[in-house]
């Protein structure tokens, strides 16, 4: 598969997982400084890794969230907490993931994530009709 094919496949997965509004916002903000990086993300992260057959998208979401909790990457974590619902991850599964992360990532990381997840839930609930 060539770069163009990986990019197109990646954009399809990126839209499915993150949603059209997020991806469109990213595309609207392309500039000479960030365009190559965004192309790399679409081709490699979404077009090569997220499309591999070994794990389904809900599992990839859960793994990604766990790693972002451990790394304390709040902006990416918030984005992936929102995206997890597009992959069928439930609030109860996220709660269990956060509880489990308290053991391995520490209570402060889990506590911060619990608050961030509640903020995401509140935003999603406000957006729902």
UniProtKB/TrEMBL annotation:
It is an enzyme of class 4 (lyase). Transmembrane segments: none annotated. Its EC number is 4.1.1.44. Residues 36-118 form the Carboxymuconolactone decarboxylase-like domain. InterPro entries: 4CMD/NDH-1_regulator, AhpD-like, CMD-like, Decarb_PcaC. Pfam families: CMD. This is 4-carboxymuconolactone decarboxylase.
